[in-house]
Amino acid sequence: MIRRPAVAVTGLGVRCAAGASPAALWESLAECRSATSLHVFDDEGAVVYPACAMPDFDPTGYLTPKEVRRADRSVQMAVCAAADAVADAGGLQVGPGRRAVVTGTGYGGVISQENGIGHPDVLYAPRLMHNAGAYWISARLGITGPSLTVSTACASGTHAVGEAMQMIRAGCADVVVAGGHDSPLTPTTALAFGRAGAMVTECDDPAAASRPFDVARQGFVLAEGAAFLVLERLDLARARGARIYATLTGYGRTSDAHHLTAPHPDGLGARACMEQALADAGTTADAVTHVNAHGTGTELNDLAEAQAITAVFGSRAVPVTAPKAVTGHGLGLAGALEAVITAWSVHEGLAPPTAHLTRLDPRCELDVVTAEPRKIPDGPVISNSFAFGGHNACVVFDSPHA
C-alpha cells in the first residue's frame, strides 16, 4: 500500500468583517464580538438589513489601481488574504510547477455582474467569472501548477480545502494555496434571500441578529470576505522548520439528493459526510475533541445538523461551536473561513464560544460552547459545511504533535 503524504497547515490569511487577520478574527470570536450591523445595500437606502460588511477594506499594497479596476471586490479580498497566508507561511518554498491554487466561491464577481447589467464594459466578463480569484492568485504568487475553482454554494470553501489536500496526496503539488471568497452584498442578493425567508431582515438588536441553535433565531446574516490556508507536505514543512498550525487529515463530501435548498430533515447526508471525513482521517467519532458547526441560524439547517452531530457523536458528547454568530454567513467564503478558525483552534487548544445563544433549542441536543473559549485536548477536530443543492463537505484537522 502506498503511503499518502501527510498535509500541514503552515499559513493563514483572512479578510472579513470580524477581522483582517487570523489573530483579530480569533479575538472577535473569543470575546463574542459580533461583526453584524445594519448595512445599506442600495444607493437609495431602500434595502437596509443586518449584514457583516468589511469596513475600510483597502487592497493598496496588494494590487495596483489598474488591477483594482480589473478585479471584483471579492477577488481583491481573495488576493489580500492569500498573500497574507503565504507570507505567514514564510513563502512558497517549492518551484512554481509544484505549487497549486484552489479557490471556492458561490457567487463569483456578483457585484461586478449586478453593476454591469445593461451596460457592460470590456472587463465585464473577466470580473464576474468564478475562476478570476484563482487567476489573480496564481499570477501574483507565481503558481504554474494546478489551478482549480469550486462552486458548491456554501460548501465551496470547504470543498476547496479538501480538494487541495487531495492534490498533495495525489502528488500533483507540494504546496497549495486554498480558500474561499465571496462579496455578495448586493441589493438583489439581499432581497432574494430575504424574500426566501432564509436571511434576517429585521431584529431589535442587529449585532445579535445571527443566533445559531437558539430558539429565537431568524435566519442567517449575509457576510463578505476571503480566507486562505497554505497547505504543504508535512515532511517538507518540518524539513524547513516551518511553524505548523495543524495537520489536515480527513475530507468527506456527499450529496443529500433531497431538495434544491433544504437539507435532508434527518441530516442523513451531513451524517454520512462527517463519517466519511473521519474514516478518511483514520480516526473515530469518540476521538474527536470539537465540532465546528455549519450553524447558519436557519431552523432547517440547525435541526438537521444537530441531528447529524448527535447521530455521529452522541447527545451532548462533543463541544460544538457556531462561528457564524460572530462572522455572519459568507456563502462560498464560509467553509474556508471556518477552516482557518478550526486550524487556529487546534493550534491554541481552544474551542471558541458561540455568541448570542441565550436559550438552546431543545430539539438540538448539543453541547454548544458559550460565554468563553473552552480548553480542548489534542485530537481531531471536524469542520462542517452543508449547502444549497444538498452539497456537504467536512474536513478534519489534528494536532501536528498527534
Total helical elements: 13
Q: In angstroms, what separates the terminal alpha carbons?
A: 22 Å
Average pLDDT confidence is 96
Major pleated sheet: 11 strands, mixed
Which range best describes the helical content: under 10%, 10-25%, 25-40%, 40-55%, 55-70% or over 70%?
Answer: 25-40%
Number of DSSP-assigned strands: 16
Q: Beta-strand level of the residues, as a percent range?
A: 15-25%
- Helix and strand pattern: EHEEHHEHHHEHEHEEHEHEHEHHEEEEE
In spatial order, strands of the major sheet run 5-4-6-8-1-9-16-15-10-11-13
Low-confidence stretches: none
Structural class: alpha/beta
Inertia-based shape? globular
If you compute it from the alpha carbons, what radius of gyration comes out, rounded to the nearest whole angstrom? 19 Å
Give an account of the 3D structure.
The protein has 13 helices and 16 strands. By secondary structure, the protein is an alpha/beta fold. The two termini are 22 Å apart. Helix content is 33%, strand content 21%. It has helices spanning 22-30, 65-70, 73-89, 110-116, 124-128, 132-141, 156-170, 187-196, 234-239, 268-281, 299-313, 324-327, 334-348, and strands at residues 7-16, 37-40, 48-52, 99-104, 147-150, 175-182, 222-223, 225-233, 246-255, 290-292, 319-321, 350-351, 367-368, 374-375, 381-386, 391-398. An 11-stranded mixed beta sheet has the order 5-4-6-8-1-9-16-15-10-11-13, with helices on both faces. It has a 3-stranded mixed beta sheet with strand order 2-3-7, with no helix packed on it. Strands 12-14 form a two-stranded antiparallel sheet.
